[in-house]
Amino acid sequence: MAVASPDTTARHLAIAEAGKVAALAGDHDTALRHYREALRMVMADRTPEVFFRHYTQCVLESLERSGSFPEVIEYCERADAHYCRFERLTAFQQRDHAAMLERLGCVLVKAGRTDDALTALHRALDIAGADALPLGRTLTGWLRRGLHVQTRRLTELQDRHHYFTVRPDLVDAEIATALPASLPHTR
């Protein structure tokens, strides 16, 4: 099996980092272009899965932050269905499944589907345990008490619990490389 070269790894990292810089500036369309190009590169070059997973999380974050809830919900539901096909999951897969259900719950709240959100969050907590998902535990408590959770308040909770991985303290703007303008613009 071919392994990606250090040059290829540096290129997709730099492109993804430019996406993160754009996301932090609130330009999620540009961020998505960069993340998707980085994803295309890692899939073409058989780069280790950790990069694919990270860039996918970046895509989901930009979609969520820009209000594209149906796309995030669809992805999370497909990931849930994928994990449900297994009889037994590794500890890593369980954490990933729980995190995906927590994300689903958060986005369902933002989409106004609180009953569905509560179901997803209960499942996430059952898989990971309440101590492993403090954000999910807090949000579940709010919903069970019948509180109306505004998007702004939920986003503040997400920020407090480091739910988003694209954060100023984790982005290296110095290595960021913008995509050429000639690359097609797709969302």
TrEMBL record:
Entry keyword annotation includes Ribonucleoprotein: no
SMART domains (UniProt xref): TPR
GO terms of molecular function: isomerase activity
Metal-binding in keyword set: no
Keywords (A to Z) from UniProt: Isomerase
Entry coiled-coil feature ranges: none
Protein name: Peptidylprolyl isomerase
Source organism: Brachybacterium vulturis
